[in-house]
């Protein structure tokens, strides 16, 4: 367990050390993990960051001001917290839409160019030049499309690992629950893991959908 203080007086250290093991929740009550450590400022001994053990077993450090951390009697509340994958999925969604639009635009131009040739509206040598240019552009965007599919696959693999770790921890807690040996903090942790799994699975589903959209245009 990590717990780092910068020459803090015993009273301040004791005050914040009691939060180790306490749940970290969001404004809506969802538990995202437990406090694993707190770092204090050298100057005024105020907390500057919180190390959180997430539901999947990993640890992550959060800036107190960025998340709007509030130290309650029995927990720490993050008033401002963004799902780490939400912005990634949003960016990917925009990139996927852009790639699809470019590829469809090129295909549309190629089709219209072929129609123009059949109608005798363009000379064959000019037709070949324009078609070659469009095909080169299409290959470039297909390459970007495949690269994006690869990035999505990497994210899905990362999510699968986190889901596996969270399910393993959930299983351990469920066993303790069955034998009646589950403490209050562990009950909150179990609830947080359920929320985490729902979030990770939802994100995974969104990524699979984006990948399918791309694959229709890439191949």
Concise summary:
The chain has 219 residues and is α+β, with helices and mostly antiparallel strands. Helices cover 62% and strands 15% of the residues. Helix 3 (86-118) runs antiparallel to helix 4.
Order of adjacent strands in the largest pleated sheet: 4-3-2-1-6-5
Total number of helical segments? 5
Oligomeric state: single chain
Distance between the termini: 48 Å
Mean pLDDT: 86
Secondary-structure element order, N to C: HEEEEHEEHHH
Low-confidence stretches: 1-8
Radius of gyration: 26 Å
What class do helices, strands and sheet pairing give?
alpha+beta
Largest sheet: 6 strands, mixed
Helix content: 55-70%
* Record field, number of beta strands: 6
Approximately what portion of the residues adopt beta-strand conformation? 15-25%
What is the overall silhouette?
A: elongated
Give the tally of structural domains: 2
Question: Can you put this structure into words, describing what you see?
Answer:
- The chain has helices at residues 10-17, 64-67, 86-118, 124-178, 184-218; strands at 23-26, 31-40, 47-54, 59-63, 69-71, 76-78.
- 62% of the residues lie in helices and 15% in strands.
- Mean pLDDT is 86; it is low at 1-8.
- The chain has 219 residues and is α+β, with helices and mostly antiparallel strands.
- Helix 3 (86-118) packs parallel to helix 5 (184-218).
- The chain has two domains: 10-78, Photosynthetic Reaction Center, Chain H, domain 2 (Alpha-Beta Complex); 86-218.
